[in-house]
Amino acid sequence: MNTRTLKKTLLSLIAVILLLAAGVAAGLWWAGNQAPAMMEASTEGAHDGRTILYWYDPMVPQQKFDKPGKSPFMDMDLVPKYADEGGDASTVKIDPGVAQNLGVRLAAVKRGVIDTDVRATGIVDFNERELAIVQARSGGYVERVARLAPSDVVAAGAFIAELLVPEWAALQQEYLALKAVGDTVLEDAARERMRLGGMPDGLIREVSASGKIQNRISMTAPRGGVIQTLEVRPGMTLMAGQTLARINGIGTVWLDVAVPEAQAGAVRAGQTAEAVFAAFPGKPVAGRVTALLPTLDDGARALRVRIELPNKDGRLRPGLTAQVSLKGGGGEPVLLVPTEAVIRTGRRALVIVAEAEGRYRPVEVTLGAEAGSDSVILSGLDEGQSVVASGQFLIDSEASLQGIVARAAGGADSGMAAPPALHEADAVIEDMSAGYVMLAHGPFKTLSMPGMTMEFPLASPKLVQGLKVGDRVRVGVREADDGLLVEKLDKTGGAK
Question: pTM of this prediction?
Answer without folding.
Answer: 0.49
